[in-house]
Each structure stands twice: as C-alpha cells, then as structure tokens.
C-alpha cells in the first residue's frame, strides 16, 4: 500500500489485540470479570455493543437492580465467554478437515493440469523426487525458447515436454519471470579477476550479475597474473568470447574494450578503481546500488580489481563455454579415462559440447563398448594450500622452514597477522578439521569406503606437496590411478603446458564427468564448482564424497588403537552423515549448493 492509499481514519487502521476495536477470542477468555456492555464493539467495527446485537430486553435485564439482576449479569457474562471457545474449537476442527481434504486432493490429483503448477517439496533421504535445474530470474524465458527448439535442454516451457529427457520436466504458471534486457546506459564496468581458473570463473559470473543490476555495459573480463598459478592466460584463451557476448546479448551489453574517449582516463585518479578492500566479501546487491552506481553516474566507468567472491547468491554460469581446443582435449581425456569406451556419460554434452558426439562418429556399426566406471579425486595438497593452512604435516623442521619461506613471499598478510596475533596451534587446527587431508589419510578414507586395487581413479591437481614420496601410499594401494599428464601424449598436452588455468579446465572436465567424485577439502573452489555442477545437471545420480574433516581427524588420531572393522564403520558413518545434499543454506554459495528455489525445482519421476 502506498502512502497516498493509507487511510487517515484511526478506526480503519488494523488494531492490536489490546487496543483494537474487536478483541480476539484469546483476549476475551483471559478477562477475569464481566466487561462493561458499552465497551464491546462488534467485530465489524460498527460501534454497537455486543449486548445490543442480541435484544434490548436482554440488555435491560442485565442491569436490573437486586439479586435477580446480579444473576442475569453472570449468565450473560458466562454466555459471552463460552461462545468464543466453542467457535474457536469449531474453526480448529474445520481447519483440520480442510487441510486433510486438501492433502488428499493433491495426492490423488493426476489430471492434465497438474503439471502446470510449479511444485516445491521438502527433501528427504528416501525421496522419489529429484531436483531439476530451472534458470535463474532474467535468463528463464530465453533459455526455454532456445532449448525447446533444439531439444537439447533440460528445462521445458509451460505445457511442453522435452524430447531429450522426458522424465525431467519443470513447468510454471503463466509467463516466465524474465526481465527486459538492459542496454548498459549507466556506463562501463571493467573486471580484472584474480586467483586460479575457478576463482576467475566465479568472478566472471558475478560480474555479469552486477552489470545487469547496475544497467552497465560489461567490458570483456581480464585475468590477473598470479604468482601462485603463474599463468598468463586471458579470457579468450579459455572461454569462447563470441559465444559469451552473443549468449548474453538479450540480457546485458558486452564489449571487448572501452570506447576511445574513456581509454585515456586515469581511472585511479578519478576514483573509479574499486579493489577487494573496498567491497566486503559476498556483498549484497544493495551495496552496489548504494556505493558503485554513483561512481558510474559520475565517471561513466568503474574498474573492479580482484573481485573475488564479492557477490552473494549468484546465477549458475550457463554463459561460459570452454573454447573448442579445451573441449576437444577434454573429450579425449574422458574417453581415455573410460578406456576408450564408445558410450558417453550423463554430463559429457554439458562439458565438451559437440565433441561428445564426435567420439561415436564412425563407430556406430560396432557394438558399444562398455564404459569403465571411475572415481575422480581432487587431492588439494599443493604447496599454496599446505602453507596457508598453518598446519603440521609431519615433515619436521625442514618442512616448517620451507613453508615459512613460502608464506613470506606469497602470503605477506598472513605473516603479518601471525606476528601481531596469537593464532591457533597446528594441533588445534587439526582437531577442528581445518587442515587439508594428507594423501596418507585420503588412502585410509577411500579404503574404508570400499574402494580397492581394481578401482580406476582420476587424480586432479597440480604438483602435490612432497612429490612421489608423499604419493607412494596412494599409488601403491591404487595402481589404477591416472592423471591427465599420463593419459595424454606430449603433443596433445603441449599446447596447455605453462598455462595452469587451462590445465585446471581439463581437471574440471575429468572430475565432473566421473561416476563418483571425492574431495579432500570442501572449501576448494574447484570442488565447489564440480559438486554443484553434478547436483545441477546430474539428476540425483552423480554421487559426491564430501568428508567431514573434523570427524575424520578424531578417527585418525585413534587409528592405532582400534580394529579395522571399527575404523571402517566410523569412517562410513562420518561420510554418510555429510553426503546428503540439502537445500542451499542461507548465505551459502549457490555454486556449491545449487539446490534452491531460484535455480532448481522438484519433479516426481514416477509421475
């Protein structure tokens, strides 16, 4: 209701239970004595007394002087106290029967109009419903139209069943909630994303959302050089620029560079450079409207430097597709992990595009070779992770000096914090589950879960800290462990060498396409994106092992004093308690938890 529509008459405003024009049944029952007759207006606020609504003779009799009048007053008071109770009980019983009827109606209703309503159901461990992706806000209608034409999508328009996946339907009432496209009239927005490929991927998606929010023209994002990853790859080396621009054209305007009249500006001097120190982590949209939009209006350009995790609750990155060379080698990698199987998996089309089909080209007349199932393992145990954790990994004084020197170079802020404040000890960090799992601990976890020497494992990651000696336990127990380096020939992997972000893109494809995915650090951006992608597109059939490191730390500390059967049972229980995928908690990343009303809906496969 607007200000102009608000009534000025005091009697027409909603009133409180204490001072309102008509008391609630609870307030009437709580009255210790009879109320004055003239003080009880009707429930419609007419100003007449409740006693006057019955009969004038009753009112008169309630005020007779003497013993008779006293008795009559008690009867009248009792009657007005009993009636609300009876009415309340009747309403409660009626509501109960109404709810039962409504639930039975929803269960039994199987008419043609049933699919026209978007249904949200609570999750349960044994639910027969799976979550199906539905596009976030303004991309909804356009994606439905495009994917309905080629039959390759997972989301249908209202009243239309997809050909490719008949069981996966998501229909909505009326028109979609797509907003009109923005022309970028408020100025230009530049982004220089830091970190590795997965941090940069999130930053690009956040930039699209912020540009849409601010009605700004997005300049094609740049990637900052990282002293950790040492990769000079830019956006166009990893993702398809033209696809990115054209795909989002109905939503935001994207250009490859600033116009000439703005290129000569000193952005830092005019106050248009915004660093991560200026923007809080996971900032709300209101922050950008309040603080960034005025900069756009004043200077016509704003430049975000870093932009790591600077927006909360973002859309899933549909608009990013790997360049053909990454897709082609990614498809080759998947095929070799599966030992040259001719069948492609559930997520292959989403990862490698047309190259998923090309694997079958020329082999259709042969019987399909059975696909080898494999486990993908992201062993996040590179030196940057090890050094930043401040944990002890059993390497003694030599390890401590090496990691301390690495922190001095790459994490000066952490070293300054270490000098000025008392930080938790390595033992305390370990007991709280804040240390990454070592390869030796990962071996014990996988063995306790039932994986054995015959299990084929694809290992993702760069240079594991400690080298071959640290990996000895893993390679000995799991001899079928493979990496992209030993699956691809030197000529095939050579174009990606010295480009860690492009190599990480191959790891992303290999992990996401796996039959099962296990991570050792749930805080890793790669693990978050892979697990979220598998939930979003996997139809509830792509399991992810997400260990509870705090529980495992307690188990590992006692592994010398317990039998293997007890150890195995405790590890499986710890994993079982953390493997279920629930709706996205408030404030958590939508990339890791895409199961939310904004991105996915429920459908019944038995319907």
Automatic annotation (TrEMBL):
Q: Where are the transmembrane segments?
A: 80-104
Pathway listed for it is: Glycan metabolism
Q: Which UniProt keywords apply?
A: Carbohydrate metabolism, Fucose metabolism, Glycoprotein, Glycosyltransferase, Membrane, Transferase, Transmembrane, Transmembrane helix
| A GO cellular-component term linked to this record | membrane
* Gene Ontology terms, MF aspect: glycosyltransferase activity
Q: Which CDD domains match?
A: O-FucT_plant
| Membrane-related topology note | Single-pass membrane protein
Extent of Low complexity compositional bias: 27-39
Q: Which locations, inside or outside the cell, does it occupy?
A: Membrane
Q: Which domain of life is it from?
A: Eukaryota
Q: Which GO terms describe its biological process?
A: fucose metabolic process
* InterPro entries, sorted: FucosylTrfase_pln, GDP-Fuc_O-FucTrfase, GT106_glycosyltransferase
KW Glycosyltransferase (keyword) present: yes
Q: Where is this region: Disordered?
A: 1-39
Family recorded in the similarity comment = Belongs to the glycosyltransferase GT106 family.
Identification of the protein by name:
O-fucosyltransferase family protein
Species in which this protein is naturally found: Escallonia herrerae
